[in-house]
Specification:
Chain lengths: 293, 309, 361
């Protein structure tokens, strides 16, 4: 299994190669199949879906998607309004704004943590880190009561604020590392050349940390988008993102499996695409900097 | 030096430009606000856990100290929650570790095929766990689910997957494995690829058997990554909510009521603020102990990755 | 006074790195700061630049107290040891960065930058990014960036250190000319004593956070203030003998009585260290005048000279340096060594301080 790389001679026997091929195929199938299958389902009419045995060969249809996008579900029982597109829009809005805000607040803070040693910084870093591992409900349940109090219960702003709990620690930890990797003398040289602190931060530090900032932003977006429990508890019906919306959709539309599948496909595609785009930084982001990919 | 000393107050601090000293505080103000935004509800929850308080019985609200916790200790439902949570955690982490390690070893060499596969394997990890649960729910539907069909081909008919208390745990563990194994895999893969080549080349030259190489060389060097991956997963698994809630809402019956699901139900179904808060504090205690141990280890790892202390 | 440092002190984690240091430089003065590594040279520059803040003391630039002023307010140019060029900007933008904060026009900036990069012979690489430049080009770009703003004070932190030997030698000749042309007050840090002597009008010797001597190169060489300074300047290093002069100004070396000058009679009975530079020692086969017996053990060429390794009867090793033309003329074996008494340098053994002729130690 753990054969070291030897460019000269091939040490693996044919049996090993076959076993390895079989194993890899099985693994690839296991992990890729569900996505593939749901995609297929989304292109099938209900009757195709309910057919037994299930078949890969069928006539694909886009009716599920058109129903979702148009927001109208016409069936034998009549026409049902689907609010799923609204969920999609909520996801886009919440994730984008939350990440933008988190970047705006987090990048300067990450710089402060990287460049200065101050007790408040250690405290903040430690708190945010330890609450990364704390049960979200612990904070969410009281928040749901507090939100009613403060009138934030039915607002985007309330949600964007709460989503900072997801995005901000991530951005802080990843971007901090990138700032630390910049030699301080480079910033000093710019200061000595006559530039203010702010100019140095904007023209030197941030551009040099840009890959990290982009990676952190992308990852934070994915995490915000995929979030379920925050939205479940704090989002009112018309502010729900796709994660909660898809679940509600299942209960509401009951038998419209093709559309459920299409809804899942639409909900999952953005993050999958982003993940492919940002995959270089994923290892580092997921381990919050403990492992560099 | 990675930090200027501009803010460590020297003896003549009084003359230091105030603006420079204030700068880091100004910059981290928002992060501080977020911290407060976390700590306030936290302490509120801690306080609630000491109350008898049901939202639909406001008149009975009162301070009862640790009674909620004591009641837990005597409550078989609580211990059921503990048991299921631990079972879920152990099953998922162990299976994901074994599977993730195996895959990482298979993909160890940096070939185009291997790299392509490892990228593709990221996709389940990037799927929202709640949506992954939905996907699997569709696939395990007794009427048209493809998996039900496959299983029937093996002679097992009417496999109830998530609707049967006996098979529900198996089903959600399966979903968890699908979503989170790639996490362990990419961490261990990064670790494997960063290992120095010499020990392995030397072992190959000396004709050392692979079992020795694996257990005595590879594994020990991989240990920090394994510990990181396992601890991340332990901490996330014991608090699992999305997958279980999306799949069965904790059912059927109480077969899947892990900590957070149980706390959620206690709050939103029974409106019992006190008990749900107490349950969450118990969970927090467990995760805090684990994460404290982990944070020390993790910070050391992070510094190593960034090349300075 | 263009630059005045007054009793500067700086410590890191309890360890004192700069110890009550005072130094003055007039406008246009070129001062080399020389000393062994760890002596605090880089920290000193950083204190002057404003990158570090002292615990006590003052930094005065043109009479204004700049001790706690931010780096951008000091009117300083600095070239770092590792260049510290901005990797994401072209070499041109790197140099121009020192001018952009001032409200000059685009064309004015361009002409000033072009002027200086032409002087430093890097005008042809201005379009490149730093990672595409050689060490020598990077160093000169960093220098251009430091100079282009015509700063009052120029701080150069061992700029020739990472440059290859041939270029280093060239720059050692060109730099002083260039620096004098600009007229800034220059503090030039180096660990190479020959560089220190070539570049500066004066040398400030910095050892363990203290300035031990500030003088012209010839003074430092001929009249070092301490044993340490004498040891640092000279290649091969100075010969040191533990002696105690008698009332006639004579000392005992290898059982021979040699005179170092009656002026040292005032040091009679005081334990001292006698220093004789290798080029002041002559070796001959005959014992005329005041000599001490040695054994010629080996001969090695060193730069433009030939170095003889001598050993006295009591096992002490002495180095003598001959001009290259005399190489190979000294046979191995017993010989006699001598030195002119005028070349003797005397130091107090307890504190290492030099004893001037005629002075009481």
């Amino acid at each position: 299994m753990a054969t070291p790389r030897d460019p000269g001679m091939d040490h693996t026997s044919t049996l090993e190669k076959v076993l390895r091929g079989v194993a890899l195929t099985a693994i690839a199938v296991f992990f890729m199949f569900p996505i593939f299958w749901i995609l297929l389902m989304s292109l099938q009419t209900n009757e195709t879906i309910l057919r037994i045995p299930p078949s890969i060969v069928f006539e694909p249809t886009l009716s599920n998607y058109t129903a979702l996008i148009s927001g109208k579900l016409t069936s034998a029982a009549g026409t049902l309004d689907i609010a799923f597109m609204h969920n999609l829009w909520n996801s886009i809005l919440l994730s984008t704004l939350s990440v933008l805000l988190a970047l705006l607040l987090g990048v300067p803070a990450a710089y402060a943590f990287a460049r200065f040693k101050f007790r408040l910084g250690e405290f903040i870093a430690f708190t945010l880190l330890s609450f990364r591992f704390a049960p979200p409900l612990l904070v969410l349940l009281p928040l749901s009561l507090i939100f009613q109090y403060l009138g934030l219960a039915d607002t985007y702003i309330g949600l964007i604020w709460v989503y900072q709990l997801i995005a901000l620690p991530l951005i802080l930890w990843i971007v901090r590392g990138y700032f630390e990797d910049i030699s301080p003398d480079i910033e000093h040289a710019y200061r000595i050349a006559g530039h203010s602190w702010l100019n140095t931060f904007l023209r030197i530090a941030v551009p040099l940390a840009r890959p990290g900032i982009a990676a952190a932003g992308l990852l934070a977006f994915i995490f915000c988008w995929n979030n379920f429990i925050f939205a479940l508890i704090l989002a009112s019906a018309d502010k729900q993102p796709v994660t909660v919306g898809a679940l509600a959709f299942v209960t509401a539309s009951g038998i419209q499996y093709g559309q459920i599948a299409a809804a899942i496909v639409l909900s999952v595609t953005p993050t999958l695409l982003l993940a492919l785009y940002a995959q270089r930084y994923l290892v580092e982001g997921l381990s919050m900097g403990a492992v560099k990919g | 030096m990675t930090a200027t000393d501009a803010t460590s107050p020297p003896a003549s601090a009084a003359q230091s430009p105030a603006r420079v000293r204030l700068l880091p505080y100004l910059l981290s103000l928002p992060a501080l606000l977020v911290c407060i935004g976390i700590l306030l509800p936290f302490f509120t929850a801690a306080y609630y856990s000491l109350l008898r308080w049901r939202l639909n019985l406001p008149a009975m609200k009162g301070f009862i100290g640790f009674d909620n916790y004591i009641a837990f200790a005597k409550d078989p439902a609580f211990w059921n929650t503990v048991y299921i949570s631990l079972l879920y955690t152990v099953l998922t982490v162990v299976l994901e570790l074994l599977l993730g390690l195996g895959i990482a070893l298979l993909l160890r060499q940096s070939t185009r095929l291997n790299n392509f596969i490892s990228i593709m394997l990221l996709l389940p990890l990037m799927t929202a766990p709640a949506l992954a649960a939905l996907m699997w729910k569709l696939m395990t539907n007794p009427n048209f689910g493809i998996l039900s069909y496959f299983v029937s081909l093996l002679g097992v008919h009417d496999f109830k997957w998530g609707s049967d208390p006996h098979t529900a745990l198996f089903t959600v563990v399966l979903v968890d494995i699908w979503v989170y194994t790639p996490f362990i895999m990419i961490l261990l893969l990064a670790g494997l690829r960063s290992l120095p080549k010499q020990p392995f080349e030397a072992a190959a030259l000396d004709g050392v058997p692979w079992s020795f190489v694996f257990f005595r060389i590879t594994l020990p060097m991989l240990l920090p990554y394994i510990i990181t991956a396992v601890l991340f997963r332990l901490l996330d698994s014991i608090q699992q909510f999305d997958i279980i809630y999306a799949m069965t809402q904790g059912g059927p019956g109480d077969s899947l009521v892990v900590f957070q699901v149980q706390a959620y139900l206690m709050f939103f179904q029974n409106t019992n603020v006190g008990k749900s808060a107490a349950m969450l504090m118990v969970l927090w205690l467990i995760t805090n102990i684990l994460s404290n141990f982990f944070i020390k280890h993790w910070l050391r790892l992070r510094e190593r990755a960034h090349g300075h202390a | 006074m263009a630059l005045r440092l007054q009793a500067l002190s700086k410590s890191y984690g309890g360890k004192t790195v700069i110890d009550a240091l005072s130094l003055e430089a007039t406008s246009g003065d070129i001062v080399t700061v020389f000393g062994p590594s760890g002596g605090g040279k880089t920290v000193l520059l950083r204190l002057i630049a404003g990158i570090e803040v002292p615990e006590s003391g003052q930094v005065l630039i043109d009479g204004t107290d700049m001790t706690y002023a931010t780096p951008d307010a000091r009117g300083i140019g600095m070239a770092f040891q590792n260049y510290a060029l901005f990797p994401h900007m072209s070499a041109y933008d790197n140099v121009a960065s020192a001018l952009t904060p001032r409200k000059l026009g685009e064309s004015e900036i361009r002409s000033r930058v072009n002027h200086i990069v032409r002087l430093l012979k890097i005008d042809h690489v201005m379009g490149h990014k730093p990672r595409e430049l050689s060490n020598g080009q990077k160093q000169r770009t960093a220098l251009a960036r430091a100079l282009v703003g015509a700063p009052k004070i120029l701080l150069l932190d061992d700029p020739l250190r990472n440059v290859d030997a041939k270029l280093r030698y060239e720059m050692r000749l060109e730099l002083p000319v260039l620096l004098r042309k600009f007229g800034s007050t220059v503090l030039y840090v180096t660990q190479d004593y020959k560089e220190a002597m070539a570049i500066g009008n004066r040398i400030a010797v910095l050892i363990a956070g203290r300035i031990v001597q500030v003088a012209t190169p010839s003074e430092i060489y001929d009249r070092p203030a301490t044993v340490e300074v004498a040891r640092l300047f000279g290649d091969p290093g100075i010969n040191l003998f533990d002696v105690t002069p008698d009332t006639d100004g004579r000392v005992a070396i290898a059982n021979a009585q040699l005179s170092i000058g009656a002026e040292f009679a005032s040091a009679a009975g005081v334990p001292c260290v006698l220093g004789i530079r290798p080029d002041a020692i002559t070796v001959s086969q005959t014992a005329n005048g005041a000599t001490f017996p040695v054994d010629v053990v080996a001969e090695t060429p060193l730069n433009d000279r030939s170095v003889l390794l001598l050993r006295t009867a009591d096992g002490k090793e002495v180095l003598a340096a001959l001009p290259a033309s005399a190489a190979g003329t000294t046979p191995i074996g017993a010989a006699h060594a001598a030195f002119a008494s005028a070349s003797a340098l005397m130091f107090d053994r307890a504190r290492g301080l030099s004893i001037a002729r005629g002075a009481r130690p």
